Model the fold of this input.
Amino acid sequence: MSGDCGGALPPKALEGLKLFNDKRFFEAHEALEDAWREERDSIRNLYQGILQAAVTYFHISRGNYEGGIKMHERCMKLLKDYPDVCRGINVGKLKRDLEAVNAELKRLGEERAGEFDPSLFKELEWNERRLWLCDLCGTQMVEKNCKITCPNCGNRFDCSDLNLHFD
Ligand SMILES: [Zn+2]
Done:
């Protein structure tokens, strides 16, 4: 089970994605581990997969050939069943980037792993959804076509009402 791809990302996961794109792979791994630990749904496997992508890049950036190959394998096992977009994250692109990195690492081989070009560590892409919490019951609300609805108590408003607060 790959879990529900429709929801929003929790703050810790978002933090991990941003750190990943800053090429701070160790810190990205820590933030994603927090997101993974706090999640009970099977969507936690997605966070773990991206976490392992960060660890793969971390190993390779330190010239660790064996670590990079092994972690890539574990990572692809977790990510392979996810659709191209899940939780707004472009998982398809991540998988292609990981395969390109793995192919280049294998081409270099163990002897020359230290020469790996870090510009091949491509950025993650995602659509950041705003996370709404119901002011009546605290449940996470669902945004669709500018209508924001609480699945628990039915509280709803229109996103155009909110712009007044945010502008
Ligand atoms: Zn509510």
